């Protein structure tokens, strides 16, 4: 979001080198809004204005620019200033940005960082995309269980500005093994007993994420347990970092958007729609279009097989698109409903009987309804009212096939350990198209 | 999630009336896991076990049962115990549950609640679904700006157990007008200056939600500003409540799932897929199937118009489903990509030129590719290699039409203030089907 309201004033202040007003501009408003007002500036001007903010505030404002802009600034501005800024960016965001810098730029910046930050970046870089490790931040309040309530509050006060979240305290032993957690809520509620220790207060049955756990599974835990943050541990239960709620919203958004793309037969994009390379985009769409194309070719061969009938009853041809689309649309409705219900945890695999039972009823209702409309139209185009019966009969059968396969394929793919969103719709479309044609011509053969 | 591991033990403890062990069971584990272990019990047993937990803990465990179960328990169990529990449920969840009780049950429970809770429920019930008001909780830390850091911490300590979140303090004047916010982080960081007031610390440029603001817009603010909670105010800036991050995840999930349903031409369901009434479900699917059906009818009339050509070149019929599905699939890819990119804020309306430019290039690449495969097949089915050229030429044109309308209709609908997700795909399908047929036959007329 760019807000041009203050751009002229900002440019004027820069031209006049008006430090007092620039400092005031940087520090008065909410950091997010400050960022919006600055975003219309050129890189150099924007960077110059940023230097008037305190170091922490600067990192906070910077965090609101869009990612492409952030990378551009880190890539192009004065290395020492960049390093000073990088030092203050939350460790999880910092790694994501660092991985987008050119190799030579990263090599320029890294040596300018304190040793601890350098090691932190290198360590976090090593986790695979899509795992808990790739989302976590290592800035976490690790305290000993012998610390008292008042001692913990004091320790927290000293560290607060460096931590991404202070809302849980993680109690660890001398080897950093996770022993328990204390929420700041509990800590604050225990202020009247300041000499109790964290060991007394802590909850030891902690929900954790394994460092190589899939991000979707991590997001489910955070949602289910309503957590503000989840600790990330290695297989020996050593505390490595935490994942905070804002990253979980991103994961949920990413996963659901991927589902939508897969349902529409597009390989999920790793980049924004407007940024991804056009050849890459063509590939991600083309690969599924070709698969669907081969499925549709089967219908061409099936129809080829029925030329004699079609030539005799040419009016049947008019209804081919209608028949196929009725089956395809009801099938994609069923598939999408079942896929989204599985993604959001409303449907489990062992409920397949209930799912199919419901689909059969809905298919019957929908089939009868569309058949009635279809018959009303077919009477006009078909030679006789009896011949017109081919259309409603086919519609009932095709919608049944659509709903049945639409609902069962996602369940079957899930059972096989495949992604139901990716595989279902193309297969449903293929099956319904070819079965639709076969049903249509054979009902016509029977009746005509 | 039901975990049957402890069910036999729990039933035994209940049979023996073993208070000590039941109390221990209720209070030892993480509340979420305790809920999983209990969820396999019948309502009466589950309720009996719950009574062994402290009142706050009981509400916490109860919060992890699925909503249907929660409503069932509130509907059926002993009214006084129910009222005691309801008193402890966070105010936003409590209202949602209350609205699902039968009228007579609600009238039984309401008088048993303290006056303040009763009024709170009645007030929150009055906000429309989908607005900020319907999501908010009224349990919020409202403090005066003259309060000192140590005073605020103490006040917080006293109220902590009743507040849904203690991570922001809201500074209000005597009329409850919102003056500013102080994060608990700032408070804790300021422990060394305990006599500073909240007025000194508070940020006055606060991001707020209006009480009648759409939930999607609220979620965007929370995501953009990385908030743990957002204050909800009326038009006079009186603080009414807050919306917390967990409700925002639910909104994001709900909105994206609605998009997926609309893209597949299903009216979004208000209930879980397995719970919604079958007639209701049939209606939500049928209404769009009928609209799509009428669109497909147009293709039937178009084909009717071309019977002469089709009768002469019956091999053309075989490719009808292939032509239509190539256009339809590329169109639904484009529409889905543009819709999801708009929902996630990657594409703004004024970027339409860039979107269409990119789609034209991708359409060309995809069209040429599929045309090559199509020609290879058509040579076998068409009478001459020249006649076979109809297929690749049509494919290029139809994929172009699909991508172009697929990308532009969501933009146009957005511009008109309609929901792009709801309107685009059916219209794209209709337009592409009919244009596909017209293009196909006219290219055939030219070449044959």
UniProtKB/TrEMBL annotation, chains A, B:
Subcellular location: Cell membrane; Membrane
Ranges that cross the membrane: 287-307, 313-339, 360-382, 388-413, 425-443
Keyword annotations: CBS domain, Cell membrane, Magnesium, Membrane, Metal-binding, Transmembrane, Transmembrane helix, Transport
CBS domain ranges (all copies): 136-198, 202-258
Gene3D superfamilies per UniProt: CBS-domain, MgtE N-terminal domain-like, SLC41 divalent cation transporters, integral membrane domain
Keyword Nucleotide-binding: no
SMART domains with a match to the protein in the record: CBS, MgtE_N
Membrane topology: Multi-pass membrane protein
Keyword Nucleus found: no
Main subcellular location of this protein, as a coarse class: membrane
A Pfam family hit: CBS
InterPro entries (UniProt xref): CBS_dom, CBS_dom_sf, Mg_transptr_MgtE_intracell_dom, MgtE_N_sf, MgtE_transporter, SLC41_membr_dom, SLC41_membr_dom_sf
Listed SUPFAM superfamilies: CBS-domain pair (SSF54631), MgtE membrane domain-like (SSF161093), MgtE N-terminal domain-like (SSF158791)
Family in the record: Belongs to the SLC41A transporter family.
Function, as annotated: Acts as a magnesium transporter.
Subunit structure: Homodimer.
Name of the protein this chain belongs to: Magnesium transporter MgtE
Species name: Roseiconus lacunae
Organismal lineage: Bacteria, Pseudomonadati, Planctomycetota, Planctomycetia, Pirellulales
């Amino acid at each position: 979001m760019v807000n041009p309201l203050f751009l002229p004033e900002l440019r004027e202040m820069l031209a006049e080198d008006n430090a007092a007003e620039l400092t005031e501009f940087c520090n008065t408003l909410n950091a997010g809004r400050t960022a919006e007002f600055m975003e219309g500036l050129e890189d150099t001007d924007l960077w110059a204005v940023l230097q008037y903010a305190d170091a922490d505030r600067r990192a906070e404002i910077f965090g609101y620019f869009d990612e492409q802009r952030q990378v551009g600034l880190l890539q192009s501005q004065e290395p020492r200033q960049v390093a000073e800024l990088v030092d203050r960016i939350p460790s999880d965001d910092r790694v994501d940005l660092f991985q987008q810098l050119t190799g030579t730029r990263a090599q320029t910046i890294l040596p300018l960082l304190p040793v601890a930050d350098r090691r932190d970046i290198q360590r976090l870089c090593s986790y695979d995309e899509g795992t808990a490790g790739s989302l976590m931040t290592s800035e976490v309040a690790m305290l000993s269980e012998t610390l008292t309530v008042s001692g913990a509050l004091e320790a927290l006060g000293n560290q607060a500005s460096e931590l991404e979240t202070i809302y849980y305290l993680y109690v660890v032993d001398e080897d950093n093994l996770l022993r328990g957690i204390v929420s700041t809520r509990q800590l604050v509620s225990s202020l009247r007993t300041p000499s109790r220790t964290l060991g007394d207060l802590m909850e030891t049955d902690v929900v954790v994420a394994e460092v190589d756990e899939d991000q979707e599974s991590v997001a489910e835990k955070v949602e289910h347990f309503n957590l503000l943050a989840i600790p990330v541990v290695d297989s020996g239960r050593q505390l490595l970092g935490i994942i905070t709620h804002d990253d979980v919203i991103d994961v949920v958004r990413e996963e659901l958007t991927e589902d939508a793309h897969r349902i529409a037969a597009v390989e999920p994009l790793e980049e924004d729609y407007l940024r991804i390379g056009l050849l890459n985009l063509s590939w991600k769409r083309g690969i599924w279009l070709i698969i669907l194309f081969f499925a549709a070719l089967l219908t061409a061969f099936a129809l080829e097989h029925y030329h004699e009938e079609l030539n005799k009853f040419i009016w049947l041809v008019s209804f081919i698109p209608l028949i196929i689309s009725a089956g395809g649309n009801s099938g994609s409705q069923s598939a999408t409903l079942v896929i989204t219900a599985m993604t959001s945890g409303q449907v489990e695999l062992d409920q397949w009987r209930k799912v199919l039972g419901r689909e059969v009823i809905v298919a019957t209702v929908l089939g009868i309804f569309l058949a009635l409309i279809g018959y009303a139209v077919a009477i006009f185009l078909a030679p006789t009212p009896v011949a017109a019966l081919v259309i409603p009969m086919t519609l009932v059968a095709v919608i049944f096939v659509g709903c049945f396969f639409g609902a069962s394929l996602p369940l079957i793919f899930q059972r096989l350990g495949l992604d139901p969103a990716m595989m279902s719709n193309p297969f449903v479309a293929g099956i319904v198209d070819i079965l639709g044609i076969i049903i249509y011509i054979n009902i016509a053969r029977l009746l005509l």
